[in-house]
Design a protein that fits this description.
Elements (H helix, E strand, L loop, with lengths): L1 H5 L9 H17 L7 E7 L2 E8 L22 E7 L13 E3 L10 E7 L3 E3 L3 E10 L8 E6 L4 E3 L1 H9 L5 E5 L2 E6 L7 E10 L3 E4 L3 E5 L7 E3 L3 E5 L11 E2 L4 E3 L26 E4 L1
Parallel strand pairs: 3-19, 6-16, 13-17
Antiparallel strand pairs: 1-2, 1-3, 4-18, 5-7, 7-12, 8-11, 8-14, 9-12, 10-11, 13-16, 14-15
Length: 287
């Protein structure tokens, strides 16, 4: 069971079929090991110091929630978190860590090469431009579905008609747009294949912008991503005084989990539960 739980990435166990089978096995395992016959006490300690404890009723169904301890994490060093129960008791648990990062760290195991570049960093309001995108299969074997998510700076809009033309020309197989991100789907790539295409954009709103980080990965191994810093641009107004504004980010960075960043577009993860306001700090967990 320990091995099975270690295979979980972003709440999934590989493919849809694999996830279903894994969840069935976990449910059967939990039912066979139900042992709590009375109320138990749950305690948590950080770096050797007790932070608090919670009385848990044997009939409790809701998650066990502790007050936030993010301000007690020591930045720049490894923190040790210890969870314990009343002797002889056992309760199923899951750990999720959330952190803020504008450009998450890329995985060395990602088998997709990826680049994207704006045609210019300065646009006039109403003018057009393009994002040059390059994808490459780094392995000498065929790959399944490949994802490329292009983060656009605020103020830029993609041309839907041109994206449809890319599908018709078989440069990409499908696309969708969520917020400031253009999500491109490729059903597969041949050995060492390289695919290049351009996404047309229009400058709509004057200002200075930094888009969300772009990334590429294989659909079924989304824990191994290649991340690129957010694209930047400045849009000048066509008339009147230039808008004075601080550079902004379209998404304000990413919330991610300890195993991977959320794989769904928008890269946000659910908050709440035991650890609902962690900082960007490393720590060990002892049970």
């Amino acid at each position: 069971m320990k091995w099975l739980l270690q295979q979980c990435q972003s709440g999934r166990f590989g493919s849809t079929q694999g996830t279903i089978l894994a969840l069935k096995a976990i449910i059967r395992y939990d039912k066979s090991r139900q042992s709590a016959k009375s109320d138990v006490k749950f305690t948590v300690a950080l770096n050797g110091s007790k932070l608090g404890e919670v009385e848990v009723s044997v009939s409790a169904q809701d998650p066990i929630v502790f007050p936030s301890f993010a301000d007690k994490l020591v930045e720049g060093q490894q923190n040790s978190l210890e969870l314990s129960l009343t002797e002889g008791a056992s309760i199923p648990m899951a750990l999720a860590v959330e952190y803020f990062c504008e450009t998450p760290e890329s995985s060395s195991q990602c088998q997709v090469g990826f680049s994207c570049k704006l045609s210019s960093e300065t646009f006039d309001e109403g003018s057009g431009g393009e994002v040059a995108v390059s994808l490459r299969n780094l392995a000498d074997i065929k790959q399944g579905m490949v994802m490329a998510i292009i983060g656009l700076p605020g103020g830029l809009e993609p041309r839907h008609d041109q994206l449809k033309e890319l599908v018709k020309a078989e440069k990409i197989d499908a696309y969708e747009i969520r917020g400031r991100e253009v999500i491109c789907y490729l059903r597969g790539m041949r050995e060492l294949e390289e695919r290049q295409f351009k996404v047309d954009v229009i400058a709509r709103i004057p200002g200075q912008y930094t888009g969300p980080a772009s990334r590429a990965y294989l659909y079924y191994t989304d824990e191994f991503k290649l991340w690129l810093p957010g694209l930047k641009c400045k849009i000048k107004p066509t008339g009147g005084e230039e808008v004075q504004q601080k550079p902004t980010s379209s998404t304000g960075g990413y919330s991610s989990t300890s195993s991977s960043e959320t794989t769904k577009p928008s890269s946000s993860s659910k908050k709440g539960g035991l650890f609902n306001s962690m900082g960007n700090t490393d720590f060990d967990v002892k049970l």
